[in-house]
Amino acid sequence: MNMRSSFFPGPVALVLAMAAPWWSAPASAQTTIMSTSTVATSTSSTTTTTSTAALVAVQGTVTGGAESVSFSGKAKVNADVVTDPDFGGIPTVVLSIDLSGLKGVGASTGATYATSDQAIVQRRLAAADTVQYNFPFNRSGTSAMAPSLGLASFNLSFNVNTLKLVSATGSIGSSP
Length: 176
What we know:
The protein is mainly β. The protein has one helix spanning about 10-25; strands at about 30-35, 35-40, 45-60, 70-80, 90-100, 100-105, 110-115, 120-125, 130-140, 150-160, 165-175. The protein has one domain (about 45-175). Helices cover about 10% and strands about 55% of the residues.
C-alpha cells in the first residue's frame, strides 16, 4: 500500500503556493478623497466615508447647584458615516461634537460660565437619532477641578441614501 504524507498532491500544492500572492492583502490600502466622501480601496473591499458638518444653535438652562445657568451659542457637529462592505452591516456614524462655542450666564450673579467639552460618539446610521450626554462646565476664572454638569441633547436627521447629515437641532438641560 502506497500512502502519501502530504494532504495535497504535489501539483495542487504547487499551484496553491504560486497563487497565494494573488489573494494576499496589499501592504498599504489605496485612498481617494472626493469632496465630502473618502473612498478607501483594497483587494477585498471598498469602504466609503461621507463627512458633513453643521454649526448648530444651542440654548437652554442648567438648574441646580449654586445657581441656574443659561447657555447659548453654536455647537460644531461633524458626522462621518462609514460603510461596512465586508459584512454588509448598517453604516456607523462617528459624531464629533464641540461645545466650546457655548457661553453661560448665571441667573442670580450674572457670572459667565464656559465649557471646552468635545465629545466623540459612535452610533448606527438611522434616518433620525437623538444623542444625549453630560458635559462639564465651570464659572469663568475658577478651577476646573470641580465642574458642574449639564446635559447636551441633539436631534439629528440623516439621508440614509447619501449618508449625509441633513439637519440638526440642539438644546441644553440639567443632568439627571
